[in-house]
Amino acid sequence: MKILNSKNIGFDSQLDKLLSIRKKNFRSSSISVTNIIKDVKKNGDKALLKYEKRFNKNSIIVPTSKEISKAIKSLDKKVKQAIDIAYSRIYKFHSLQKAKNYSYIDKLKNKLQYKYLPIESVAIYVPGSSASYPSSVLMNAIPAIIAGVKRIIMINPSFKGKQNPAVLYAARKCKIKEIYSIGGPSAIAAAAYGTKKIKKVNKIVGPGNEYVAAAKKEVFGDVGIEGMTAGPSEVTIVCDKYSNPVWVASDLLAQAEHDVLAQCILISKDKKLINKVKLEIFKQLKKIPRKSIARKSIMNYGILINMSSNRKIIDVINKIAPEHLELNVKNYKFFISKIKNAGSICLGKYAVMAMTDYNIGSNHVLPTNGSSKYSSGISVNEFYKRISYINLSKKGIESLGPSVITLANYEGLAGHANSVKKRIRRK
Fold it and tell me: Which residues have C-beta within 8 Å of that of residue 225, sequence separation ≥ 6?
């Protein structure tokens, strides 16, 4: 693992270099997805099926209702109950985000309104194949349901024609009627442009690997996507001498097991703690099923940073702009108001990122790759569009029109000025 010390000369440039290496690898994927998207756009289901067979060993695009019911029936009752609990808590928290329309009438009796309307159709991408995430179904679908989206489709890659029963149960819980057994860039293209079997949507949301994220960027403009990068996962953990190194190591590995491009960063002023966590990481690494994935993530992108001051810690966090931030320190309140860039922040030793991934209620689809500097995680707002309504009175246009005419003429837009002049009463 890479070890940095803020006291060393060139620390900032070293950190920038390590962060940029991952971004470079992330962006390089976009080159390989372009041809796939073009192929699906041109050849529809034929191309879609070709890529499914190649990448997922799958020959089924649309699973039947009978197949879905059979898969759900095999699901353990405890898993169903866990999904039910998560659904309830996520729904409750997100229902508080529901938007309210508002209007304003000025002294000239001009009326201005601002209304929130749900997007008509949305595709939620749920990662699958070698791993399955029923929690991602809930995190994407529930905010859309609350916003009032009429048509929600689920894209979820299967493996050898079989989708995960927990994912299917979560989809049924959310009353999703259109379920497609597809994944990767070809699935994004199908949702964006449509095929004979899949009607195109207005927006695509949901986390995915670097290829899915690159595909979403490629189709943006023809279809909407989140205002962020929801790519391979990240966590930054701040620790002090009171932190439990065993717990901290497990938190880092929980993130690393997601993807080989996942990034885990540990920051602390306590060098002894950093060394303890490092030893514990490799001790625990041997015991997790996805150790080969976690090891690549840790070795290629894991960073251990020994910091000299709290002020420097804050600066580095805001530079990294992590998806997940854990303040596993005694005085976490000191940091809260000073951190501006993060997708979500866990406060204290018991607030662990893994909990927020499931049933706490907050959303786990969050900005990655530094995009928390300008964007936020999935919320109900993601599924609204907003329209302004303007009703001008006669007095309103006559009172405000002359200043509009002045500005329009100043900008060289005589047509604008003329359209206002035509409506002003001649004296």
Answer: 203, 204, 205, 216, 217, 219
Residues serving a catalytic function are 323-324
> pTM for the full model?
0.90
Q: In a 3-state reduction of DSSP, which class is residue 247?
A: helix
Nearest to 55 by CA among 66, 40, 41, 67: 40
**pLDDT class for 22, splitting at 50, 70, 90?**
confident
Residues 267, 271, 276, 277, Cα dihedral to 10°: 10
CB 63 within 8 A of CB 164: no
How many CB atoms sit inside 10 A of residue 108's CB? 14
Q: Residue 224: helix, strand or coil by DSSP?
A: strand
Is 217:226 a contact under the CB 8 Å cutoff?
Answer: no
- Residue where the block lists tokens 């595909």: 215
34-79 pLDDT, tens digit per residue, is 999 999 999 999 999 999 999 888 888 999 999 999 999 999 999 9
83, amino acid identity:
I
The CA-atom distances, in angstroms, between 21 and each of 24, 25, 228 are: 5, 6, 20
Degrees (nearest 5) of the Cα angle 47, 53, 59?
90
pLDDT digits (tens, 9 = 90+) for 327-358: 999 999 999 999 999 999 999 999 999 999 99
pLDDT at 117: 97
